[in-house]
Amino acid sequence: MGLNVIMMGPPGAGKGTQAGRFARERGLLKISTGDILRAAIKADSPVGLRAKTLMHRGELVDDATMIDIVRERLLQPDAQPGFVLDGFPRTVVQAEALDRIVAERNNGPLVVVDVRVPEKELVRRLASRLICSKCGANAELPKAGEPAAARCARCGGELVQRVDDNEQVVLERLKVYERETKPLVEFYRDRPTFRIVNGAQGLERVAHELDTVIDDAALVGAKEAAAEAVKAVSPEKAARA
Ligand code: AMP
C-alpha cells in the first residue's frame, strides 16, 4: 500500500526541505508545484508564460492549471509508491480535486501535516533564503561563525535569491497564504490523518517529529481504510465489529 503525504504550511516553513528529505528516505515521489512552475518559466512553456507574472507578484496560479499539472504527475508510474506534495493544495478547490484523485488512485491513505512557524520567523527566513539555480535545493544555513556557502552543497550549482523572496513579495505571499490556504486547515482538521508539527525548531528535530506523526497517521489511515472495506463488503459484519 502506498503512502500519500501533503506537507502544508506557510512559505518559509521548511516544507520543501522536509518534503524532499522524507520522500528520499521513503522512496516516494516529491512533487513541488512551485518547482514545476519555475521549470516551466525557464522553459518558456505556455504554462510558464501564464504563471510568470502571477508568481513574481506572489499571487496564485489558477486552480484548473494547477490541478491538471498535479493530476498528470500523479498518474505517472513513479508516483505509484506514493507521494509527498509540497505547495499543493493551496485552495479548497484544489483540495477537493486532490481528494478525487486520491480516491481514483485508491492506493494508501492521505496524511496531512501542517508545519507551523510564527510569521516573524518566516519573514526573516525568506528574506535570507538562497536556492540553487540548478537543482532548486535550499542553501544550507551556515553554522555560527562560518561564512555562507557560495555554491550548492548537493550539486555545485550557483546559489541565487528567488525573485519572489524579496520583502514586498514575501508579505504578499503571506497575505495570500492567510486568505487562500489557511482555510485548508479547517478543511482537513477533523480527519484522523491530520497532524500539526512545530516547524520553528532545528531541522533534525522537525524531521524527527514529522517521521513520528506521519507514521502514526498512516497507520490510523490504513486501519480506517480497512474498516471501510469491510463495511463495503459486509455491512452487518462492520456493525458487529
Ligand atoms: P512555492 O515554491 O511553493 O512557494 O510557490 C511559488 C509560487 O508558485 C507561489 O507563490 C504561486 O504563485 C505559485 N504556486 C505554486 N503552487 C501553487 C498552487 N498549488 N496553486 C497556485 N499557485 C501555486
List the helices and strands and how they pair.
Elements lengths: L2 E6 L6 H12 L2 E4 H10 L3 H12 L5 H12 L7 E5 L5 H14 L4 E7 L2 H9 L3 E2 L26 E2 L6 H15 L1 H6 L5 E5 L4 H31 L1 H6 L1
Parallel strand pairs: 1-3, 1-4, 2-3, 4-7
Antiparallel strand pairs: 5-6
Bound molecules: adenosine monophosphate (AMP).
Adenosine monophosphate (AMP) binds next to helix 2 and helix 3.
Keywords summarizing the entry:
5-stranded parallel beta sheet; Rossmann fold; 53% helix; alpha/beta; binds adenosine monophosphate; 7 strands; 241 residues
Kindly report the CATH topology.
Rossmann fold
The CATH class: Alpha Beta
Can you give the mean pLDDT?
92
- Strand fraction: 5-15%
Helix content, binned percent: 40-55%
Bound molecules: adenosine monophosphate
Instruction: State the low-pLDDT regions, or none.
Output: none
Largest beta-sheet details: 5 strands, parallel
Radius of gyration, in Å, reads: 19 Å
The CATH superfamily label reads P-loop containing nucleotide triphosphate hydrolases
- Helix-strand sequence: EHEHHHEHEHEEHHEHH
- Structural class assignment: alpha/beta
Strand segment tally:
7
| CATH architecture annotation name | 3-Layer(aba) Sandwich
- SS summary, helix count: 10
Strand order of the largest sheet: 2-3-1-4-7
Termini Cα gap: 23 Å
- Total separate domains: 1
Shape: globular
